[in-house]
UniProtKB/TrEMBL annotation:
UniProt name for this protein: SDR family NAD(P)-dependent oxidoreductase
Family matches, as InterPro entries: KR_dom, NAD(P)-bd_dom_sf, Sc_DH/Rdtase_CS, SDR_fam
Alphabetical list of Pfam families matching this protein: adh_short_C2
Homology family: Belongs to the short-chain dehydrogenases/reductases (SDR) family.
Species the sequence originates in: Bosea minatitlanensis
Signal peptide: none
Keyword line: Oxidoreductase
C-alpha cells in the first residue's frame, strides 16, 4: 500500500463500517474510504489487526476507530453498532468483507467446519446488514456492499463450503436489494478474482504460481486489493445511485475464459 493516496471520490461526512478490516482487502477498503474523507469504523475479530489499520488511517491523516467484534454473534455486532453511533453517528456505508476459507474435499469436510464457514461468510453478513442497516432503512438512505468472490459462480474444488457460502452471499445481496430498495437502501456485491493478499502471500511465493495464474487472465496480470477497493467505493458512491442488486466481478476477465479450453481447429491464438 502506498503512503500517498489520491481521493477520486468524496465521502466527506459519511460513516463507513468495514468488517474484516484488519488486513488484506478489508484493510485496503478501509484506508481507501478514509482517504476519500469518510469516518471509518475498522471492525475485525483481531484486536491487533483492527488497531493496525486504525493507526494506518490516522497516520495518513484520516479519521477512524477500531472495534473488535465476532460477526457471527448478534450481541457482539450490537455493541459495534453502539460504538459506531457514539463515535460517528449512524452508519451510512456498510462493507461486509469478513470471511474465512477452510480447505478440504467435500467428501471429508467436517460438519463443524462447514458450519463455521457458513456462519462467518453468510450469517455474519446478514447480522451486520440487519444491525447496521436498521437506521439506514429508517432514514431511507444508505448502502451495503458485500464482498463475494468469483467462487460464487465458478466452483472452487477442495475448498469445503467456501464456494457455496459465496454463492449465498450473491443471493443474499439480491434479496436484500429487492426488500430494502423501497426504503432507499442499495445493496450490491463485488466478486474479486486472483488478488494477492497477506493471507495468501506464501501461496504466491511458490515459484511459477504468479506467472501461471497471470496467463489465465485476459489482462495478463493479477489484480490488487486497490482494484477491489475502487470497485467497492464506486458502488457506495452517488455514481452508482441506480445500481442495486448487482454483482460486480473484478477479475480482469477471468470468468469469461471457459471457451479457451475448448478445441477449435484453425483458431487464431491472437499472439498469446
Amino acid at each position: 500500500m502506498s503512503a500517498q493516496r489520491e481521493a477520486w471520490l468524496d465521502f466527506s461526512g459519511k460513516t463507513c463500517v468495514v468488517t474484516g478490516a484488519g488486513g488484506g482487502i478489508g484493510q485496503e477498503i478501509a484506508v481507501s474510504f478514509a482517504a476519500s474523507g469518510a469516518k471509518v469504523v475498522v471492525l475485525d475479530h483481531s484486536r491487533e489487526g483492527a488497531e493496525a489499520t486504525e493507526k494506518m488511517i490516522l497516520d495518513l491523516g484520516g479519521t477512524a476507530i477500531s472495534t473488535v467484534a465476532d460477526v457471527t454473534d448478534a450481541a457482539s455486532i450490537d455493541r459495534a453498532v453502539e460504538r459506531t453511533k457514539t463515535a460517528f453517528g449512524d452508519c451510512d456505508i456498510l462493507v461486509n468483507n469478513a470471511g474465512i476459507l477452510r480447505f478440504g474435499p467435500l467428501e471429508s469436510v467436517a460438519p463443524e467446519t462447514w458450519d463455521q464457514t457458513i456462519a462467518v461468510n453468510v450469517k455474519g453478513y446478514l447480522l451486520c446488514a440487519q444491525r447496521f442497516g436498521e437506521r439506514m432503512r429508517q432514514r431511507r438512505s444508505g448502502t451495503v456492499v458485500n464482498v463475494a468472490s468469483i467462487a460464487a459462480t465458478e466452483p472452487h474444488p477442495y475448498c469445503g463450503s467456501y464456494s457455496v457460502s459465496k454463492a449465498a452471499v450473491v443471493m443474499l445481496t439480491q434479496q436484500l436489494a429487492l426488500e430494502w430498495g423501497p426504503s432507499g437502501v442499495t445493496v450490491n456485491a463485488v466478486s474479486p478474482g486472483f488478488i494477492p493478499t497477506p493471507l495468501n502471500t506464501a501461496f504466491y511465493a511458490v515459484p511459477g504460481v504468479t506467472e501461471q495464474r497471470s496467463k489465465l487472465v485476459p489482462l495478463r496480470s493479477l489484480g490488487s486489493t486497490r482494484d477491489v477497493a475502487n470497485s467497492v467505493m464506486f458502488l457506495a458512491s452517488g455514481f452508482a445511485r441506480y445500481v442495486n442488486g448487482h454483482n460486480l466481478v473484478v477479475d480482469g476477465g477471468l470468468s469469461h475464459t471457459s471457451m479457451i479450453h475448448v478445441p477449435r481447429p484453425g483458431y487464431d491464438d491472437g499472439g498469446r
